[in-house]
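Progress narrative, Year 2. Work on FGENESH: predicted gene_3.129 protein from Rhodotorula toruloides advanced from sequence curation to structure prediction during this period.
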Amino acid sequence: MTTPMAPSFLRKTSDGSPATPERFRCAVFKSQGDPLELTTVDYRKPGKGQLVIKVHGTALSNNDAISEHGLLNMYATFPRTPGMYAVGEIVQLGPGAVEGGSTGGVLSALLSRLTIGKTKEKEGEEPAVHHRFKTGEKVIISATHQCLGEYCTGRAESTCPLMENWPVFEQLVVATFGGKVLDAYERHAEEWDRKSSDERRVLDDNNDRIGFAGDGCIVILGQGGYASLAYHLLRAETRRDERIVLVSTSKKHRPDDFGMPSEDYLSVGQEGLVDALRKMGGIKLAITTDQPYEGAVEMLDAMRYGGEMVPLTLHEDGKIQRPVAHLIARSLVVRGPVDLHSSSMHRALRICEKHGLDRHVSIHKFEFTEEGVRQAWDATKNQRDDFSANVVVFDTQGE
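Result:
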């Protein structure tokens, strides 16, 4: 059992705002592939458009393999702290830390909204809020890394306040993962709307020629709780006549485990999978909550001309099967998710609250000790069949 390190030394404040430390503890990979260990680092003030939170909980995901293995070579400096999503209390604000507006000022706030999938609010919903954050406010942060520590820094434009009367860690998962699912769907829909009539006609003619009739379907490829949340979030958000199918990469679960009708459930490796998807018009958008390694070729065989695949997570080897012939012959697109914006996080929370989708989210908690963070990371790398999200808990009062 690892002995916890001494608590951070806090600077005293005279204005009643939360104290900030001189140093604090965080978990790091000291070099590529090393196990996580705790260390102390210097506290740094937030820059323009940034804020710092005292972390109550950090959600780990397979994407933290980017930090463990230094997969982005030009940014792969070690030691490196993983953790892309955190919830906590604001302790310090940089200049212009406005929700939804990157660096403050009228122009930058407008530019931050003029991005794909961010300007369009659904009928009957409130527009995204642009208030100035306050110290002591409880918020959710989306960052590139560095959230697995007692304090972390984030951009105001990728931060949203917590909702009241809803479990904190469930909100953390819904706002961050759910926001990325909504962004992937909206980006695809908006880019289709922008196509010219000639572009649409060519794609439709090609799809008819290979037997993909109608508008096609949206596929969630994956397993466990994240696939379930993605399916139900889109089912609640899209038109009732929009066909949404979950293609499970697991042989362990059945439709009842996901709380979904059997006609919306298929599995990788089942006989006639491509034919079943062909009868639905082929795949126009595949959102993969599990890296498209198993079943990737079958998914590409069932993709419509002009179809799109958006991987939301990866495995530690970072590899993906992508036969180039499919991409060229059918004008397919494989790309990552949009940078998460506060408006998408807001919207995911509102939809889940309205439809009670928090029932599809369960949390597996781990302590912030060296043993605890290692257990959390091991569980995350091996959680593909699991319906729980893994959260390292720093402060139980934050729940």
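The chain has eleven helices and 15 strands. Confidence is low (pLDDT under 50) at residues 1-7, 102-128.
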